[in-house]
């Protein structure tokens, strides 16, 4: 299992993902789930992945390979004219990988993978998409300004309650860390370290990219502070009177 979030704010796009994968209680590994492609001055593309690890790695590897060695008849992430066309390209690649992996006559369910994809191409606005295993996708809007994939239920309440498009980067990172900390404490299949990336609109450069480990001082402050804040809020509520 995993947990990834992509979120739009007025200043740009913020992404965070965990790094844990597991194939059972005694088989836990760390894999990067955040992938970045960029052409300075032209585009920054960020993708978060969840689902079958073999599928997600194959999709990323194929996109990488075609970006490094483009062919005339095969489109590349680095040459698509728009974010919509790039999302469509990723969707088509997912379908291609799954179709090649599934034995004839078997269902593709166990090979499924989902992705959050966002960024900006010169001449257009930053955009954010959720791409499904079937290859289709939806786009973030003002009404739905963030996407989650993986183990989403524990971290969603704080995002829904506290999100504000005018938030600063510092506030957004704090919000995401609370969301991830809530998930980490509720589900052992999501784990540290966390990968964080901030893309500032119209910069065509990655403004901030950082890996947050369990001994990170700020993460410890947020984790401990949120626990205490919840306890204090609970105690401040009136007691039930039978």
Please provide a written account of the structure.
The protein starts with a strand and ends in a 6-residue tail after the last helix. The chain is 33% helix and 29% strand. Helix 3 (156-162) runs antiparallel to helix 4 (169-186) and helix 4 crosses helix 5. The protein contains 5 helices and 12 strands. It has helices at 53-68, 83-101, 156-162, 169-186, 217-236; strands at residues 3-9, 12-17, 20-22, 28-30, 34-39, 43-51, 113-121, 127-131, 137-139, 146-150, 194-200, 206-212. It has a single domain, classed as Glutamine Phosphoribosylpyrophosphate, subunit 1, domain 1 (4-Layer Sandwich). By secondary structure, the chain is α+β, with helices and mostly antiparallel strands. The mean pLDDT is 94. Strand 5 (34-39) and strand 6 (43-51) form a beta hairpin. The protein has a 5-stranded antiparallel beta sheet, covered by helices on one side. A 5-stranded antiparallel beta sheet has the order 5-6-7-8-9, covered by helices on one side. The radius of gyration is 19 Å and the shape is globular.
For the structure shown, list the relevant keywords.
12 strands; Glutamine Phosphoribosylpyrophosphate, subunit 1, domain 1; globular; 242 residues; alpha+beta; single chain
């Amino acid at each position: 299992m995993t947990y990834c979030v992509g979120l739009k704010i007025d200043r740009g796009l913020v992404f965070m993902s965990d790094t844990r994968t597991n194939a059972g209680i005694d088989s836990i590994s760390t894999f990067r789930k955040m992938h970045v492609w960029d052409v300075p001055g032209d585009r920054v593309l960020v993708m978060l992945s969840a689902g079958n690890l073999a599928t997600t790695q194959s999709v990323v590897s194929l996109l990488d390979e075609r970006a490094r060695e483009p062919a005339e008849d095969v489109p590349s992430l680095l040459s698509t004219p728009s974010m919509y066309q790039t999302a469509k390209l990723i969707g088509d690649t997912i379908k291609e990988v799954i179709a090649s992996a599934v034995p004839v006559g078997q269902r593709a369910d166990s090979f499924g993978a989902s992705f959050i994809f966002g960024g900006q191409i010169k001449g257009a606005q930053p955009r954010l998409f959720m791409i499904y295993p079937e290859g289709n996708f939806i786009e973030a809007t003002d009404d739905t300004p963030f996407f989650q994939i993986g183990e989403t239920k524990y971290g969603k309440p704080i995002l829904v309650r506290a999100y504000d498009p005018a938030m600063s980067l510092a506030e957004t990172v704090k919000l995401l860390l609370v969301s991830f900390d809530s998930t980490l404490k509720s589900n052992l299949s999501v784990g540290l370290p966390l990968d964080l990336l901030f893309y500032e609109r119209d910069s065509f450069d990655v403004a901030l990219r950082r890996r947050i480990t369990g001994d990170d001082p700020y993460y410890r402050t947020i984790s401990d502070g949120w626990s205490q804040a919840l306890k204090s809020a609970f105690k401040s509520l009136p007691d039930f009177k039978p």
